[in-house]
Amino acid sequence: MELLMWVAAADPSGLDPENVKPGWLGLAVVLGLALGVTVLVRSFAKHTRRANQPWEGERADDQPRDEKQG
User: What is the value of pTM for the model shown?
Assistant: First the structure.
């Protein structure tokens, strides 16, 4: 908190809340992050579906070897 006060005191001109606006750069960053998260979620869902399917040459109802012998 002290650091914030020190930084605020270092800028004597200050910022006028009436003139400060988010701008297009902020919007672009937020949209880019949303797009990145969407791509990652879709990729995760695709890989999860693949992982739940049986491997090549393996049947879905096969049991592990330890359970067959016992």
Answer: 0.51
Number of other residues whose CB lies within 10 A of the CB of residue 36: 10
CA atoms within 13 A on the CB side of 65: 0
14 Cβ contact list (under 8 Å, min separation 6)? 8
Cα end-to-end distance, the chain, whole Å: 65
Predicted confidence at residue 38, as pLDDT, reads: 98
**Separation CA 44–CA 12 (nearest Å):** 49
Helix ranges restricted to H, 1-70 = 2-10, 23-52, 65-69
Q: What is the mean pLDDT of residues 36-53?
A: 91
Say how far apart CA 21 and CA 23 lie, in whole Å: 6
